[in-house]
Please model this.
Amino acid sequence: MQAYGAAFARVYNRQWAGFARYHAPRILEFYAGRNRASENLTLLDLGCGTGQLALVFLEHGYRVTGLDLSADMLHYAEDNTRAFVQSGQARFVQADAAAFTFDESFGLVVSLFDALNHLPDWDALRGCFRSVRVVTGAGGMFIFDLNTRQGLKRWNQISVSEDEDILIVNRGIYDGGDRAYAHINGFIREDDGRYSRFEETVYNTVFDLEPVRALLLETGWRELYFARIDALATPLDEPEREGRVFVVASV
Model:
């Protein structure tokens, strides 16, 4: 799985934390509505980034483990949830989402902001699904989102955003194949007033949804469907027409 460096982790923590803050309460509400949810208030935040989703669940009494390949992202995750880390309610682990294990099981596993699109291929995705299944307890649930081919068409552009503290130039490339790329660079103001340059190239692997369904069933998931974030209980009839889908799987 792709790991971000120190400069980009700082920019990510500053610029893209809002995605998790917006979507996490919807996932929490959906999961809390399940009959068995109150029996296991444990969350594995897979590809946890800077800990924004973890923080929402921690504030609602969950015990949270965050996993990410980037040590620099984990630094911000621990800082953003420091009180919960110190109390033992949260922990963060550096590992690859394609192959991991824990001694405990989780009631809910969530991977947000197309983190699984950052896996390089189908073998890595299979390893991820298998690893998640092993650590998901009876009655547990796995919720993750994916960018579709339709959604990745939006990457094919150049965008510029700026304010007095940060300038970001994002050039995306998607030719309709199996991978999209975004070259992100710019400048961010340091505490001493100087500006530091950052640069990162990120990718999304395209995972077509019917093979995703088959792979989940192959790796031990029994029930699954595709949904929108604002209607997580309602299966989509034509998920490939969406730009982003949420996969809801259970055992």
About this structure: The longest strand covers residues 136-147.
